[in-house]
Amino acid sequence: MAYSAALNSVYNHYLTTYAPRSTSKYDTHKKSELRNVYNSIVKLNKESPLYILDTSRESRAFAVGLKENARLLRNTIASLGGLDESKMFNKKAAFSSNEDIVSASFIGDVPADGNVPSFNIEVTALAANQVNLGSFLPSDEKIALAPDSYSFDLTINDLSYEFQYNIHEGETNRELQDRLSRLISNAEIGITADVLEDDEGNSSLRLTSTATGLKDNQNFIFHISDDQTTKKSGSIDYLGLGFMSRLPSNAEFMIDGEKRTSSTNHFTVGKMYELTLNGISGEEGQSATVGLKTDLDSLTENIGNLVSGYNSFIRAASEYLDRHPKSSKLLGEMSSMTRFYQPGLKQLGFGFEQDGELTLDNTVFQKNILNGDPLEQISSIRDFTNSIVRKTNQICLNPMEYVDKTLVAYKDPSRVGRNFATPYITSNYSGMMFNSYC
To answer: What is the DSSP string of 329-355?
Structure first.
């Protein structure tokens, strides 16, 4: 149990330090898929030469970031219908007739009869988070509290956190507010803190919950107090942090005339649609219609998302060009792959920028699709996408291929296929998670 807890802490550090904070259902795998990954790693390590790797912090960030961005690109492609060629780009897209009120995406499966209902939604209130606003104190004046060790308790999600700090001789109100702002925000417990200023040289510490809405019949999301804290009390009253300037509240809306509420502005409807409330209906009865786009519009959106995901990956790799020359190898491989499919893609409205990114002319694309068999027309896009998937799988399997390293020795060429498997490559990559933590 202790080992599991330590490993979770290490992985959380790895994610928050290096990796984009995004996971999806496409990050889950069957046993057979994991077995295939394991077999691929064994095969790779059998023939891998011995290297001395660049183990600097920058190289670690590059390798981990490269793998995570490759994973995101693969997941983007999977979300467009799946990685199977027969399902690729078949995902249906949702529309909202008024994006100022609500935006929508389709997350369900189209039934056999093809009937996916549309609906009208009217928004009367958005979900709000809790805000505690402290007293405005003269920024440059010395704190009117005796120097000592102080503490207070913050309770959120039925968990209580104690924050301890010292007040120093001669410290100003603004210095204390800035210090507490960093202390609370860096704790990442679901509360952000910042300091507000007015036109008269005063400043106030503000606490804002990241969550919205009310749960379990409570009228607050977090509570701050120093009544029963372990160190000296008095700083909460002095800073005025007990004042709740905005009460948390639920979103209120009507779907086809039926009243509903939600603790967040982001929720699902009927396991079919994922909605995000963006604003309140301007007048009573004003609503937005949510439904499915046409097959052509859905296909166009899917291809557009492919282009966006590909460009994000290229931009992420390009950021390392100055510090990691090996990243040019990856960009060169991606460029060569794109050029191979360029004739077919260009006919469908794709454009090719000098920095390796892609563009898509929706009008040209839709015109070409309407003039022929859609499945045949996008065959070149499917082939191109399959190549991207293979490349992302390769990067995820061995991101160390693109890290600066010095070759020390090859495996015995006379024993190709019969060399012993070693954990060298994978242990160097996984070890980087622990190097920055320990």
So the answer is: HHHHHHHHHHHHHHHHHHHTTEEE-TT
Q: 273 by DSSP, 3-state: which? A: strand
- The half-sphere exposure of 121 on its side-chain side, counting CA atoms within 13 A, is 31
Residue 224 CB partners (closer than 8 Å, separation 6+): 132, 152, 153, 154, 155, 207, 236, 241, 242
Pairing between β-strand 202-212 and β-strand 137-138 as defined by DSSP bridges: antiparallel
Res. 273: pLDDT tops 50:
yes
- 5-31 CB burial, b ≥16 within 10 A, e <16: eeeeebeeebbeebbeeeeeebeeeee
User: What is the mean predicted confidence (pLDDT) over 150-155?
Assistant: 94
171 within 8 A of 150, measured Cβ to Cβ: no
| pTM of the entire predicted model | 0.72
Could you tell me if 260 and 127 are in contact, meaning their C-beta atoms sit under 8 angstroms apart?
no
- The residue type at 341: Y
Element (H, E) at 260: strand 258-262
